[in-house]
Amino acid sequence: MSSTRARSGARGANGGTGSPPVTGGSPGGSPPRGLARLWGMSAMATVALAALVAGCVLAATAGPRVVLAARTRALHQTLAATTPLARTIIAATEWSTITSDLDNDSFGSLGSANLTAGQLGEVTSQLHSDFDRGVVKLAPADADWMSMTTLLHTVTNTSALPGAGTFEVQFEVSYRQPFTQYTRLVAGHYPGTAPASVSPVLQVAVSSQTARQFGLHPGSKVPITPPKIAFSGSLAKGITLEVTGIVVPRDASSTFWTDDPVVLTPDLSCVDCVPSIWIAGAFVGPGELGALQSDFGPEDMALQWVFPVDVGSTGGQQAQPLYSALNEDSTQAPPLTGGIAAASSALTVSSALLQPVGTFLDTAAEVDTLLWLLYVSLAVAGVVALLLAARMVAIRRSAELAVRRARGASLPQIAIAAAGGAALACVPAALLGVVLGVLITPGAEPA
């Protein structure tokens, strides 16, 4: 009887139904305690695995963020080195082309083909909405402006320009809106309103540099050669520019002034000519839009709409989408709608941003080749280190896993048990690595 009880006690102590599970993983086969009982590993092994995972995730998080931040800085530096005019989208056309597309008789009776301020403003509004999408961020709409500019016309009486001397002087006349937003009046008054029909006198404003160069003042009258009438080649009636105001730029570096510098500062364009030729510009007022077209429309005028692009918020990873969007805008007709829909085909869109962004992308592609070699090397090293750590964990828990297998556990069950124990250490460590990666790269863009 006593021997039977002894054998029964032995079975209970060595794997009977009431025996505790063998977890293994501790030296000498002693049962684990604390963290080891929960994770299936010793505390030292758990901390080592967590540190390894945290380090790998930290490198994988911080590395690309640093690279993207450096790329963004490089893009901003590249674009900052360009002129404000280069950071614009420009839509251009000729007066006869757009009026013809809008079904106006551009060579009929004078004034019948005139564009209205409402039509021009609607083109500006719709183009802004079309261009300002996706990665292309335009400056606020009040930074947009448009112009309608004549060809150059020679001053017929240089005595009206005391400062011209014996030089020949040629003027272009431009309608620009918004005008007062970019100018400040220092003498006289802004141009008034001229009749929509052919007007022999146009009120104009000139820059202070132009006035100083040629000795102009409010009240000065500058006669210029009349425009040629299309097809016939004959001259229309003479035109006189009456200076009513002197203006200075609110911001001389703005595209309003740098797009056509002669409207701000006269240019001695042909020094070797006899006589030399000065090129200058003058502005008509909003009320003279009809008169300007009636006077100079038959010889054709250049129209353009300028939209400054806000590149300050463009990230380095957005350079390729930005290039693609600008290229698409430059190769497709803008989708105008409503009463100005027919003018869509008349517009030619361009942007000088394509060149610096394209150069940046070429340079970035060369750098990426080196970075990919680094990324692959780090990735392989990380995978090898994690595989070695997994192998060490498996070896350390081999006794426990063998017992589970002997008791009938399937391989998926064993894998889930092992992964679950490791996940308790790895998941918090991975999250910690992500947080640290973000904290040590402040201001960097997310991957």
Primary descriptors:
12-stranded mixed β-sheet, elongated, 447 residues, 12 strands, alpha+beta
In short:
The protein is α+β, with helices and mostly antiparallel strands.
Mind explaining what this structure looks like?
This protein has 447 residues and is of the alpha+beta class. It contains 12 helices and 12 strands. Strands 1, 2, 3, 4, 5, 6, 7, 8, 9, 10, 11 and 12 form a 12-stranded mixed sheet that branches. Helix 3 runs antiparallel to helix 10, helix 3 crosses helix 12 (411-439) and helix 9 (319-331) packs antiparallel against helix 10. The two termini are 74 Å apart.
Task: Produce the secondary structure layout.
Layout: H1 2-13, H2 35-39, H3 43-80, E1 88-94, H4 95-101, H5 117-131, E2 145-149, E3 153-154, E4 168-177, E5 183-188, E6 201-207, H6 208-214, E7 221-224, E8 239-249, H7 255-258, E9 267-270, E10 277-284, H8 289-296, E11 302-308, H9 319-331, E12 348-350, H10 354-396, H11 398-406, H12 411-439
Parallel strand pairs: 4-10, 6-8
Antiparallel strand pairs: 1-11, 1-12, 2-4, 2-11, 3-4, 5-8, 6-10, 7-8, 9-10
Backbone shape: elongated
Share of residues in helices:
40-55%
Q: Tell me the distance between the termini.
A: 74 Å
Count up the helices.
12
| Spans where pLDDT lies below 50 across 5 or more residues | 1-39, 104-112
Largest sheet: 12 strands, mixed
The beta-strand count equals: 12
What amount of the residues lies in strands? 15-25%
SSE pattern: HHHEHHEEEEEHEEHEEHEHEHHH
